[in-house]
Automatic annotation (TrEMBL):
<dbReference type="InterPro" id="IPR050469">
    <property type="entry name" value="Diguanylate_Cyclase"/>
</dbReference>
<feature type="domain" description="GGDEF">
    <location>
        <begin position="374"/>
        <end position="514"/>
    </location>
</feature>
<dbReference type="GO" id="GO:0005886">
    <property type="term" value="C:plasma membrane"/>
</dbReference>
<dbReference type="InterPro" id="IPR043128">
    <property type="entry name" value="Rev_trsase/Diguanyl_cyclase"/>
</dbReference>
<dbReference type="InterPro" id="IPR029787">
    <property type="entry name" value="Nucleotide_cyclase"/>
</dbReference>
<dbReference type="Pfam" id="PF05228">
    <property type="entry name" value="CHASE4"/>
</dbReference>
<dbReference type="InterPro" id="IPR007892">
    <property type="entry name" value="CHASE4"/>
</dbReference>
<feature type="transmembrane region" description="Helical">
    <location>
        <begin position="267"/>
        <end position="291"/>
    </location>
</feature>
<keyword id="KW-0812">Transmembrane</keyword>
<keyword id="KW-0472">Membrane</keyword>
<dbReference type="GO" id="GO:0007165">
    <property type="term" value="P:signal transduction"/>
</dbReference>
<keyword id="KW-1133">Transmembrane helix</keyword>
<protein>
    <recommendedName>
        <fullName>diguanylate cyclase</fullName>
        <ecNumber>2.7.7.65</ecNumber>
    </recommendedName>
</protein>
<dbReference type="InterPro" id="IPR000160">
    <property type="entry name" value="GGDEF_dom"/>
</dbReference>
<dbReference type="GO" id="GO:1902201">
    <property type="term" value="P:negative regulation of bacterial-type flagellum-dependent cell motility"/>
</dbReference>
<dbReference type="GO" id="GO:0043709">
    <property type="term" value="P:cell adhesion involved in single-species biofilm formation"/>
</dbReference>
<dbReference type="InterPro" id="IPR003660">
    <property type="entry name" value="HAMP_dom"/>
</dbReference>
Amino acid sequence: MKLNHFSLLLIGGLTLLSSLTAFVLFGVFLRPELVKEIRDQQQMEVRALTAGLDFYKRPLKTFAFDYAVWDEMVDFIRRPSDTFIESNLYPAAFSVADIDAAMLFDPRGKVIWQYQGIPAPLPKDIETHPQWLGGLLPSAEEVASARPSTRTGLLRSGNKVVLFSNAAVLPSNGDGPVVGSFMVIRAIKPSLTDELQRLTLVDFSLDLAQPRLHKHLPLLTEDSRINEIRASHTWLLNDVLGQPAMVLTLRHKKSEEPAFFSKEASLIFFTFISVFLCGLLPITLVILNPLRAINRVLVKMTSRGRLIKMKPQFFIEEISRVAQSFNQLADMLERHQNYLESLSLQDPLTGIANRRGLEAFASRAHEEWLAGKGTIGFLMLDLDEFKSYNDSLGHTEGDKALLTIAQALLIECRRRGELVTRFGGEEFCVVIHGDNLQQMERLANRMLERVRELQIVHPKGQYGLMTVSIGGIFYEHFHPQFVGVSWHDMLAMADKQLYIAKSEGRNRLSLRYMQAAKLVKSVS
């Protein structure tokens, strides 16, 4: 045998052996992994979609809960008034939050008040549908528990499907008798599909369910599994009454199983000896690891029930763009949720923070003070002889005066770490987390002068003008001597100083400085 023939035979034999080896390895090991990857990706799309649907419900649930767990709402159900409706239940408050309808029920399911946009998502005579009310309103056990409760889900009415959230109405502290329930409704619109597609980055469609045609479809749940690779999967969404509501069709990005004699397989066959082991490493680093990272984020997001940002930079540009787009959508939805939450922290008359806002800011400032960051102080401001002002000029003028003074105080509190809040009635509270005690004292004096400069005439006032009395407590940088002093204690001490300012003739300051190992009191 000639050397050339032997070489050709040897090369051919090695090539054939390598090809057979690669063929077996591809069929036994690599191809099942590729199929599993496609199935996992389809499963990840299902998880992303269910997480997106759950996240879409949360702002609605938050909105209903904030309105329901509220002392003033409890009073309104017991004593309905047009003034409360005009101040708190006006249409713009719902339309800006993309709420299509809202309803308030008493404990017997009777509608006390309702708002419906155009077109109305539900019949206005909802009381004539007792089968609806039984699934939407608090049960007897929930009412008897006297604790907060919510019900959220889909509801079908003819050819319309809406998303609703109903919360039990009870006092703001979350403990007390359930006096009714508050329900908000959002119609399922084509824009819902577009928003969820941008959020989840999966392609799907929502259609109205036909009971006879679609009753055999499986229900979509958090545990729905992909057992077979297909171009699309379809599930049924029932409403809270168990009636077929929507049909969801998910179209997968990858749906074809790798062919046994594909181009990829042929490439592996011819390059198996030289690049097979090395080739797996970059594939794992630049494709599989990012997909696993994205999958971990989605799984964590589903388990925690909130959006979690993912690493924005990957080696593959398309994967980086997917991560960046997801983070941008997460920021947008977080801002939207923060806006809804901010509505519950704002005083409706003056537009400044209310007591809920005070508690959140004061708690955070107190924690930073305990950590040795800066000084802390509280000012309590009370409008002098405000009752006689109201009695002589009327409550409308009193509200105007409150608004004017609140905005003036807000202008003074423009530094970082300063917050003015309406404490209640004609009282305001200022939280100051600053650098030094002199800064706090200057702010207190500016506020006293600012109210005087407003020149609000007080016909029966001691000084002929609207004035304020201010009591304050200021703590220097944290010292172990101050252990055990809460921000509530500080607020109580500021209130005592306010009493001193009142008793000494009003229209003045009474400030107290707390320093380690000594106490200095200054009244001006």
